[in-house]
Amino acid sequence: MKVIWKYAPISTNDITDRLVRTTTWSPKTIQTLIKRLVNKGVLSYEKQSRMFVYTPLIKESDYVGQESSSFLNRFYGGNIAAMVSAYIDNDRLSESEIETLRSLLTG
Question: pLDDT by residue for the chain (107 residues), tens digit each?
């Protein structure tokens, strides 16, 4: 989806070319993934000549927000303080990340 969000509208060939360079996925796997995203209503497509061109139906920011909320609710009962505390307690945040969080919170 990151490739599609960044380069949309984008053809099947362009998606495949970009992903083959950055992943270990085969072209067939990529085509299957595209088809599943269309079936789930995440992508729309239009046939232009002999190729399909895809456009996202969901904004990246909406998707990230939805997934973040889902993760927070699933693992931390919606309690963001518990999540941040767990990351700090398990040394998953660097000092610089903690400083970034601190500056975000103090606005």
Answer: 999 999 999 999 999 999 999 999 999 999 999 999 999 999 999 999 999 999 999 999 988 888 888 888 888 998 988 888 888 888 888 889 889 988 988 98
pTM of the model: 0.68
In the CATH scheme, what is the code of domain 60-106? 1.10.4040.10
Topology given in CATH for the domain delimited by 2-56: Arc Repressor Mutant, subunit A (1.10.10)
Q: What is the spatial distance between Cα 90 and Cα 84, in angstroms, rounded to a whole number?
A: 10
Q: Which of 24, 22, 38, 23 is nearest to 12 (CA)?
A: 38
